[in-house]
Amino acid sequence: MKNKRQLLFRIAAIVIILAVAAVMFVIGRGHTIYFDNKETSYNGQTVEAFYKVTVTTGEEKPSKLSKGDRGMTSIMGQTLSMTLEITDAEGEQPHAHKVSMKVPYGMDGITINIPALMAGLPQDAYLSEFVIEVPDTGATDEEIVTDEFDMGADM
């Protein structure tokens, strides 16, 4: 009797763990999305940056990007839905576009180049993994001298 009860509790615990894992998989993981409004080139085709872009995703505060700017948002799940209000040149009226796209599951930080996206270029032209660029300071390796002062055991 005791062994059957113990077996039932173990099976119930495993079922609960699997159910929580399934729910977490369906909900999805969090992603940090970076938006670029920068000029880009792809296969010899150059796409100019917009004068101004306002990116709205969900309930977060909109990202307002001028030419050459980068914005950021965080999402949960595998689908990014956003509204882009694009102003092509100074003094023009903005035009709105709703965009929905799948987010690659394996990428942690995702960069989306908005001008390339709106130009209809392939996914590898507008979507990439975010990589932090470390500026080269031009520093050279220095030799470290540790035996300059003898604090030896002769004392």
The total of helices stands at 3
> Structural class, from helix and strand content?
alpha+beta
Poorly predicted parts: none
As a percent range, the share of strand residues is 25-35%
Q: Which fold name fills CATH's third level, the topology of the domain at 29-129?
A: Immunoglobulin-like
Silhouette: flat
Order of helices and strands: HEEEEEEEEEHHE
Major sheet: size, sense and barrel closure?
4 strands, mixed
The neighbouring-strand order within the major sheet is 6-1-9-10
Quantity of strands, as a count? 10
Could you tell me the radius of gyration in angstroms? 26 Å
Q: What is the second-level CATH architecture of the domain at 29-129?
A: Sandwich
Considering DSSP H and I runs of 4 or more, what fraction of the residues is helical? 10-25%
- Termini separation (Å)? 77 Å
Structure characterization notes:
With 155 residues, the protein is of the alpha+beta class. It has a domain at 29-129: Immunoglobulin-like (Sandwich), CATH 2.60.40. The protein is built from 3 helices and 10 strands. The strands form 3 sheets. The protein has a 4-stranded mixed beta sheet with strand order 6-1-9-10. A 4-stranded antiparallel beta sheet has the order 5-4-7-8, with no helix packed on it. Strand 4 (52-56) and strand 5 (63-66) form a beta hairpin. The model has no long low-confidence stretch (mean pLDDT 84).
Helices and strands, with pairings:
Layout: H1 2-27, E1 30-36, E2 40-42, E3 45-47, E4 52-56, E5 63-66, E6 70-76, E7 79-87, E8 95-102, E9 109-113, H2 114-118, H3 123-126, E10 127-129
Parallel strand pairs: 1-9
Antiparallel strand pairs: 1-6, 2-3, 4-5, 4-7, 7-8, 9-10
